[in-house]
Amino acid sequence: MAVEAENANFSLSSLWYDKRNRAIVLQIITVSIFVWFVYQIVNNAVTNMENQGLNPGFGFMSQIAGFNPTSPEFNLTSFDVNSSTHGDVFVLGIVNTLLISFVGVILATIVGFVVGVLRLSNNLLIKLLATTYIEVMRNIPLLLHIFIWYFGVVLFLPQLMGALPEGGRGVTGINFLGLDMIFMSNRGINFPSPVLEAGWQVILIAFIAAIAGIVFLSKWAKKRQDETGQIFPVLWASLGLIIGLPILAYFIAGQPVSWDIPQATRFNLKGGASMPGHMMGLLMALVVYTGAFIAENVRSGIQSVSHGQTEAAFALGIRPNVTMRKIIIPQAMRVIIPPMTSQYLNLTKNSSLAVAIGYPDLVNIFTGVSLNQTGNAVEIIALTMLVYLTISLTISIFMNWYNKRVALVER
Amino acid sequence: MNFKHLLAAGAAVAFSASVAQAGTLDDVKAKGYIDCGVTTGLAGFASPDDQGNWAGFDVDFCRAMAAAVLGDASKVKYTPTTGKTRFTALASGEVDVLARNTTWTFSRDTDLGFEFVGVNYYDGQGFMVKKDLGVKSALELDGASVCIQTGTTTELNLADYFRANNMSFTPIVIEDNAEARQNYESGACDVYTTDRSGLAATRVVLSDPDAHVVLPEIVSKEPLGPLVRHGDNQWGDIARWTLNALITAEELGVTQGNIGEMASSNNPEIRRLVGAEGDLGAMIGLDAEWAMRAVAAGGNYSEIYERNIGPNTPLQLARGVNALWTQGGILYSPPFR
Amino acid sequence: MSDIAYVKTELSPTLPPPPNAAGPMKWLKDNLFSTWYEAIGTVVASAILIYLFMSIVDWAFVTSVWEASSFEDCLERYTGHPVGACWGFVDARFNQFMFGPYPTDSYWRPIIVGILLVAGLLPIMFEQIPGRKIAAPLMLGIFPWLSVALLHGPIEMTTLDSGLGIGVTALLFVLGIALGLYGRKNFNPGQTMIGFGVAYCIGVMYFLAWGLGLETIATNKYGGFMLTLILSAVGIGVSLPLGIVLALGRRASNMPLIQMLCIGFIELVRAVPLITILFMAQFMLPLFLPEGVDFDNLVRALVGVSLFSSAYMAEVVRGGLQAIPKGQFEAADALGLNYSMSMRLIILPQALKIVIPNIVSTFIGLFKDTTLVSIIGLLDLLLTMKQAITSTKWLGMEHTGYIFVGLIYLVCCFGMSRYSIYLEKKLHTGHKR
Q1: Do A267 and B190 touch (CB under 8 A)?
Q2: Do A42 and A99 fall into the same domain?
């Protein structure tokens, strides 16, 4: 009977009016539309590529690129214009994207925290200054920031080489401390780079040992403080370890590292390493822009911690800066981390605007120049998206892990 | 791995959905204007004036084509393209013809699927430096910082030239001429390299043009010309012979001013050109007077040249190799016959 | 009355409070000089603020040039004295900054659109201004098409070229109205909506084909601030409904396949930079379309921008949906409302209200991100300005140009963020801490 009744009820309309059936029908419809859509796209792409005489495939990755995306002093993957391929362009692009994102994230965090804390200062003028900074910087488009910082600031630094006041030509850039080692100009910053000779591994070992020592030291200091109440100056000891130990090793091993110091040639400084002007401009823009957003996150995070916490800390006689460091910030971190993660992601993605001033990041040299030369649009854009997808996923996984760790402190 | 096969495998049931495409000429006649790809702004070749009207050497070619095909030189829709977007714009059909001082190279003509219809300007890549550097030859540029435009052949030529002479350089890659000027003037690069016509255009607008020299070396051949898509030969023919008509007109002394009387000329080639004799127009799907209108729109090659980039303009480019073959240059049009 | 000598007989006069406990001195002490390091901070901060203020005033008003015919009036090496802003340059190019290459004699068209936009938005944005009930449906249903017609003129519709096309559409129109009326009579909202929806779509189609009978102005003539506004308006207009659909799809736990598609799209788009999406729209879209079909440059950019912002909008809406207590969903079910009714009448109105400030911030982000289209060669405000400084008349005007453009963005974005804060306060109906 029951079976019959069900059969009797089964009609075309029950496909729509029965909630369970409708879910299935909707899914089938959506998925078939999606599949049809993908099929159309693929089919069109194949037809169009054939008609335009394009050669799809990844063969272009092993062709010699034939252009020079970077200078000898700023070349992290030893790109060689004589032999490097579009595949090497891809790798260089990724490395440069990671480099600017990494440095940018660190600097933007520092700027963001400083401004965010100043924004909550009791001092009206400081508060006004911090608020102005935040409101002005985050309401101007990043691309404009990049143009302003590069064309308006970096290019207005002194020229690297020019006519000297006493006659003749020479270095006219800013020579830090007169050491003839670090120079700043509108072409960027040139600085010595280490040259590793036999036995340099000793220094690396000393460095690792110093880190291990710090971990051990901080555990020991915490235990001692728990037991005796005495505070050990961990910070200073750690600093001493991490600087002192490698230096000691350097001399013990017979100075196995020498420095390649920039030398003036006719046009440029040769040797050493450099941070090119467009990287300076891009970095300033990214840090100033993202820093304003992080500052707002920091402010709202700190404000989310109940004022009672501060009052309680003061009642216990804890000094204001210690209160901030040990009581407010750790609690605020839980609120700050999720939005800050998305700021880190934004900064990484925004570094692709490098294309506007010629910093050789992935989008600029691979999605830009390589695509223009080879015409393999589908492959190149797919690879670019894959790289960004991977970077984004990695950052979010790491930040989620950190977030969980911070959240565990809660009871 | 062959990506095409992968795609084809993904599209399991393969059927060709392509519809027979109408010819570009019919498209253009139907919509009533020509889509012409130009630069986003290069002095003398294509740039909008204060009222936003496009003018320039490349623009005049588009106007001549519109006059030939549609009978009205103003029936052109200009699409500004960057060095990066120009080829997609043409390949996708967004523009019908690309007149954007583009260098004719092997791979662009074959692999990218385009057809260059001729050369309207013979250029070559040169170098500009500040006089006080004391550089006399490009071979002295080892270690210099060089400003180059991205997405151009100059980027490749530069690398080739420095490789061939075993020199190194620091590239400062920029998007357009204006950014190059800012970088070069502020001293962020020692050298600016691009086509010599582009160098001339940039040098005029520097704050002190006399403090800069263009070095004697020409490191590449840059035959600049209009291009169309592969596969539509009729449209390609129209573009090619519009260009040739402008050159032939100069050779035969036909100008914007006197073309009206040329139908009564005794010279058979002129008579063929202006459509008074023969039916050349019908062979490319146009009427008899197409070439006459093309020349009447903006004058012959020489008039277009003198008006936009010649010695009396700010660019001050002498004809040089762009003179007619009869006058010591290499500009040469096949006969109208 | 007591006459004990040591008892005071009259009131002692009220003394003013000690100088440091009230009045301006206390205010100064509390806010500026509470400790020695605060005092140092005050001095440093006021030095910076005064310096900034003085240089801005000097640059913008004192040494600036208000009338200029070319760069020679504005560069120190020609004038012989330091020159700040060159407002003459902005003045000369102002129309181009606003409208780009749009034909000069048709400026009235975007201006009317702008006036209508402001007039329509004001009652919606501020409840003090009457007319919200009328303005909202007009802005949603009529304004978009009216502005398309005004800006672009007639749009060619190949469907309406043949008699067959006209016949079929006219028939559909009549059928749609009939179905709508029928559904209305029978209180069937589904039929009413579909019927009137079809009729509305066909009406819009005819209207766009007519285009107010104006002259067609092709999209490559759009530019300047107008293009920036078009991009952000279309971006937000498309991304809001699309974002709601994506967010609902993402939460449709009974339909795992749809859920997967939505999550995949949202996360993929959010993981990559806008510029790669724009490059994709620029380079790959033409390959994906059937032969003969093609979008122009502006439409491609619009597709890219809209898809990009939909993913972000979806996340914003999802936040709102998650904030709705489960009881609301259950109550809607208990009332016997079906899915679309419960969403339309109960859930979305509440969820969207919560996230209005976030929608405004997304819009601010989108507004700023439109500058990226200059990289693919669209003449937005930024590229128009950059084009202006390549003209031989206005070389070396970078500073004025960049700061002017920056100022426009600053004013717009700051205004919008203030509005978002105002909304947040107005909508904050819960108890405050």
Answers
A1: yes
A2: no
